[in-house]
Amino acid sequence: MHYREVATEREFCCRLETGGDWRAQLEELAADEEIEAAWFTGLGAVQDAEVWFYDQETCEYDAVTFDEPLEVAACVGNVADLDGEPFAHTHAVLSRPSGGALAGHLDAATVWAGELYVRVFEEPLVREHDETTDLDLWL
Q: How many CB atoms lie within 10 A of CB 94?
């Protein structure tokens, strides 16, 4: 395990704009507020979603698109620097009217309504390539 102590410097409560992209709005906040590292949680609803699942054998993401209204029962992630740009690593549990759930890496989603809590760290998190997982991870 790799770890380090972090201190927080700012916190934000955000309401996402209807019709905008969920993850893009997070990255816009990070760029506008010069956030280099943060942890966030959120909830709301989206009109559609593209969810990625990381295949550990092929080390590739498989994308699945859902063109239907979904509740964002839970959204969690972090903001870190990736190739000089803010990257919002976003995971979500989405639910259908039946109560059935789907989950994964939320790559894109059109917001119907969304609320976020963002806690900003003092020190930046920088993603670097990890040979073992073939992912860009921080620390």
A: 24
